Amino acid sequence: MDAENIININGNKISFEKDETILEVAKRNSIDIPVLCHLKGATTTGSCQVCVVEIDGSSDLVTSCSTKAEKGMNIKTESPKVVESRYNTIQKFLSSGNHNCAISRSDGSDWTSFQMNVQKDDQSKELCPVWGDCELQDLAYRYQVTANPLKHVPSELPMETANPFIVRDFSRCILCGKCVRACREIQVNDAIEFDNPESPTKIIASSDDKVLKDSDCVFCGECIQVCPVGALVEKDVRYKIRPRDTEKVRTTCSYCGVGCQMHLHVKDDKIVKVTGVEGAPPNYGSLCVKGRFGYNFIDSPERLTTPLIKENGEFREATWEEAFTHVADNFNRIKKDHGSDSIGVLTSARVSNEENYLANKFTRAVLKTNNIDHCARL
Amino acid sequence: MAGLAAAFGSGAMTNTIGDLEEADVILATGTNTTENHPVLSSFLKRAVKFNDAKIIVIDPRQIKLTDYADKWLRQNLGTDVAWINGLMHVIIKEDLHDKTFVENRTKGFEEVKKIVEKFTPEYVEEITGIPAQDLIDAARMYANAKAGCIVYCMGITQHVTGTDNVKSLANLAMLCGNMGIPGGGVNPLRGQNNVQGACDMGGLPNVYTGYQPVTNDDIRKKFEAKWGVSDLSPDVGLTVTAMVPMAHEGKVKAIYVIGENPLVSDPDLNHAKACFSHLDFLVVQDIFMTETAKIADVVLPSSCFAEKDGTFSNTERRVQRIRKAVNPPGKAKDDWKIICEISTKMGYSMAYESPEAIFREIADVTPSYAGLDYNRIDDIGLHWPCPTPDHPGTPILHTEQFPCGKGNFHDIDYIPPAEKTDEEYPMYLTTGRVIYHYHTGTMTRKSEGLNERSPESFVEISQNDASKYNVEDGSNVKVASRRGEITAKLKVSKIAVDGTVFIPFHFAEAAANTLTNAALDPVSKIPEYKVCAVTLSPAA
Ligand code: SF4
Ligand code: SF4
After folding, report:
1. Spelled out in words, what is the top-level CATH class assigned to the domain A3-78?
2. How far is the CA of B244 from the centre of ligand 2 (A)?
3. How far is residue B146 CA from its own chain's centroid?
4. How close does chain A come to B63, measured CA to CA in Å?
5. What is the pLDDT of residues A75-121, one digit of tens each?
6. Global pTM?
7. What domains does chain B contain, in order, with CATH numbers?
8. Is the pLDDT of residue B127 over 60?
9. Does residue A165 belong to the interface with chain B, where contact is any CB pair within 8 Å?
10. Could you give the angle at which helices B132-143 and B80-93 cross, rounded to 10 degrees?
C-alpha cells in the first residue's frame, strides 16, 4: 500500500487509488453515504446535493460523488452540518409535487387537503405507487424529515399515460437527471433530456417535448429502473403491485441470444414485473422492451394446458398417460415399418440445454437416427 | 455456423459482449442490432460515443446503427463475398495486413491472395454498388485498427452463399491479425435465446454435444457406453431444410417438433405446409397452439422458461441458469419430463431427479462443458470451453491457437444471388425483425403492449419506389413472388433502399416466408431468406 494515499473518513484511515472519488472510496469500504442522482457508468453531475460531506479546513460542504480523494483529507459523512444540509435538501424535494407517502405534517387539515388533491391527480385512494420502494422516502425516514407545507410547490404538469408501458408522473420527479443519463449514456437511445440544462423544470422527450410514444423512445425501461422516486413507473405495476408482496427470482431472458440476467417479480404464482440484474454481466441491469415488458405470454389464457390427440380431424383432450402411449406406439410402429431414418426431431432454441441434450439423446439412442436439427439455421 | 467452424475449428462468437467496448473499429454487417439485440447494441453505441471507437456499417438498409457509423457502405443484396474480397484486395495491395499473424497462425493465404487479386475497388463497385473510394477508406480503417472486431447476424448467413460469406469474414479477420485479442474477433450474434445451447447440446444432425462428430468411431463408442446402447447411427442425419421436403416424398414419416413453429419460420411456406401434411405422424410440443401444432396428430403442452430450472448458453458462450418462478398452467409439463416419459414408454428408461442431474451427465460426456456445474455458474455463468472444474472458462477464443491448429484461409469467389429480378418480378425482397416482436411472434404477440407498438405486418419501401409503383403510404399492397403472395400495409420509410422491399417475418397472417426462396446454402443448409424477387401492386 502506498502510505501516501490515505484519507480519514469518520476517524477511519483508508487508502485510496488515483482518481477515486470520496463516494467511491466510502462505498468500497462499506461506509454509507446517501445519494440520489449518482448513476454508475454515467457522467457525475452532483445535482441532488444529498451526498455532501464535510472536509476539515474547508468551509463549504462538498459533493462526495464529484470530489476526488486527496491525501490527508479528513472527512466527516454525518456531521451536524452535513445532516442539516441533507435535511434541507430532502425537505425541498418532499415539499414539491405529490410526495404523499406517510410523512406526517404539523398541520392536520393541510395534510388532508393535500392528500385529497394528490388522490385526484393519481386517480387512486392509495398512497404513492412506489410507497416502500423509494429512495427519497428511505432518506426522509433516515433523517426524520417531514415536508414543509408552507414551502409546498404544487406540480402543474399533468401525468403522461399515453403509451402501453410507462407512466410519467412529473409531480413526483425530483429532476435528478438519472433517467436522462440512463437513456443517453447507458442505453444510448437519446430519447429524453432536460428542457433547460441550466435550470431544468421538466424532463422532455425529443427537444420539442413530445409524448414518449412519438419520440425516439424504444421503451427499454432503463429510465424506470434508475428512477429513485415514483416519477417513472411501469403501467401494469402502478397501484397493483407493492414490492413487499412480491418475491424475486433471478433468471435469464428467453428472447434473444444476449441472455440478459433478469429478476422475475412474482406475486400469487404470477409474474407481475421484470427488472434487470444490476452489476452482473452480460447486461449490467439493462433490458430491452421485450425482456422487460414481454412477459404477458406466460399466463396467457391461450396457453396449452392439456395434451390433445387428433381424432377424425378434431382435437380431443387426453390424459398424459394416453398421450405418452399414443406417441410411443406410433414412433415404435413407424420405426419398425419404415426404419429409424424415417423419423425426425426438431428441437429448439427456446428450450433449455438440459432439454436439448435429452432431445439429442432420445433421437440418437432411442429412435436410432441422427435426424435431429433445430430452426436456428432459419 | 459451418463457415466459422471451417476457418477456426469452432463456430461461435470468438469474443464477449462486454469486449465489444474494447474495440477500436467495429465492422457490423447484416445485423440490425438495435432492433434484434437491443442491449448488445448499447455496447456498440457506447463504444462510439464514449470510447472513440469507429463503426463501419455495411448494410443496404439505413438501419439505426448507421447514425453512429463513421462509414456506411450500402451493398446490393447478396453481394457480400464481393465487398469482403474487395477489402482484402485493398489491404494486401497497400501492405496493411498482419504478416506475422498470417505466417505463424494460418494457412492458405497464397490462394486467397490470388483470388482477391481481381477484386479491385472498381470491379467491386460494379457488383456491389459500393463506391470504390468508400471501400478503400473502409479497408484502411479496419486494417489500421489496433483491435478490429467483426459482428454479423442473419443478414450474412441467410443466403445461398451464407457459408461463403462467413468464411470470407473469417479471412478478413485473420488477414489483419484480429483474432484472439480483446476487442477483436469474428462475432456471430445469435437471434434466439438458446440457439447456442441447442447447437452445443447436439441439436444438429452431424454432431453430439460439444460438436463431437457422429461419424467418428471413437466418439460413437463413447456415447454407446455412456448411454448403454449399441449401434448408434454412423451416418449424418437430415437437416431441417432437407427433412421437410423428404416428408413430401414420403421418406420421412414422422416428425417430433419441440418448441418450434416451422410453419411460419420456414422458407417457401406453401410448400412446407404441403410437406408437413404428408406426414404419417406429427407430434408438436409447445406452449401455444401454433400454426404447426394445428396440423399435428398429438399436441403436448409444455412449460415455458419461467416455469422450470435449467441453463441457457448465450451468444457469447456464457452458460447461465434459468430458475423456476411460477408453476406451469394446467397439466403442462417441463419438456425434459415429457421426453423422459416418451422414451421410457418406448422401452428406453430415462429418469432424472432434476435438470441439475441432466447437467451433470452433459458435463460428463462433453469436454467443453466438463468443468461446469450449477454451483460454478450460479452467479454470473461461465464461458465454454471450460474443460476442468478449476478452469476459469474462456471469454476469448483462439488466443494461442485455433482448435484446428492453424486457421484456414478459404479462397472464395463471388456467386450472384440465386434469384434475379426480371420484368415480372422487378424488386428484391428481404426479411427481418422489428424490436417489439420475436421470431414467429408466438410469445410477443400475446402481449398487448408490444402489439400496440407494432400491431401488424408491413411492407417497407422507399419514397422513390412508392412513386414508381404508384402505391401510397398506409394503403394495402400485394406483394407476390414466384411462390406465393401476401397482402399487408405499406410503410414508406427512409430506412428502405430503392428497389428493395423489406417485410418482417413475425406475422403468421401475412407470413413473409410465403414469398421467400427455399434455395439452400450447400453447406449450412440455410435458405435464402434475404434475397428473392418480387412484384408490388395496390391490393384490390
Ligand atoms: S424507456 Fe428507454 S428509450 Fe425510453 S426514455 Fe426510458 S431509457 Fe429512454
Ligand atoms: S432483454 Fe432484450 S436484449 Fe436482453 S436478452 Fe432479452 S431480448 Fe435480448
Report:
1. alpha beta
2. 31
3. 27
4. 14
5. 999 999 999 999 999 988 888 877 877 555 555 556 677 777 777 78
6. 0.91
7. 5-189 (3.40.228.10), 192-237+302-395 (3.40.50.740), 239-295 (no CATH), 427-538 (2.40.40.20)
8. yes
9. yes
10. 60
